[in-house]
Design goal:
- This protein has a single domain, classed as Jelly Rolls (Sandwich), CATH 2.60.120.230.
- The chain is 4% helix and 36% strand.
- The strands form two sheets. A four-stranded antiparallel sheet has the order 3-2-5-7, with no helix packed on it.
- The radius of gyration is 16 Å and the shape is globular.
- The N and C termini lie close together (9 Å).
- It comes from Bugula neritina (Brown bryozoan).
- Belongs to the copper type II ascorbate-dependent monooxygenase family.
Length: 143
């Protein structure tokens, strides 16, 4: 496994059985894709094409999915901004935006956050960086 913040995945993997897709008020669609380490396989793990910030829920996968070291997860959000007349920033308040997928898995691992950030530069003094420790060099998560 590469020397990265994603080393918490054991060699025999983890089994994902549920998820929560999350965006804020402008979120319209959220999708979670899985790609195998060798890139030969891919699958949509979760998708909500009618996302509503007011109706977020934990959901079960129809079939649990084994994630192995080197697999890639990609979360894609689509936003609808027809009435807002100002720039929308990424951030924690619901008036700003984010694009996340929370995964429920077993066996338990000693990790509390695993994430990536878009390929934009970010000030490491930024409160979001300080809280979540995002890796700014990746736009997708490789575990």
């Amino acid at each position: 496994m590469s020397n990265s913040i994603y080393q918490w995945i054991p060699d025999d993997g983890v089994t994902v059985f549920g998820y929560l897709l999350h965006s804020h008020l402008l979120g319209a669609k959220v999708k979670l894709d899985w790609y195998s380490k060798d890139g030969r396989q891919s699958e949509v793990l979760a998708e909500d094409n009618s996302y509503d910030f007011n109706y977020q829920e934990n959901r079960l996968l129809p079939v649990p999915k084994k994630l192995l070291p080197g697999d890639t997860l990609k979360v894609t959000c689509t936003y609808t901004d027809t009435s807002r007349n100002r720039f929308t920033y990424g951030g924690e308040p619901s008036t700003e935006e984010m694009c996340l997928a929370f995964l429920h898995y077993y066996p338990k691992q000693h990790v509390n956050t695993c994430g990536s950030y878009t390929g934009i530069s970010i000030n490491q003094d930024d409160p979001i960086y300080q809280r979540w420790g995002f890796n700014t060099s990746r736009s997708i998560l490789t575990i």
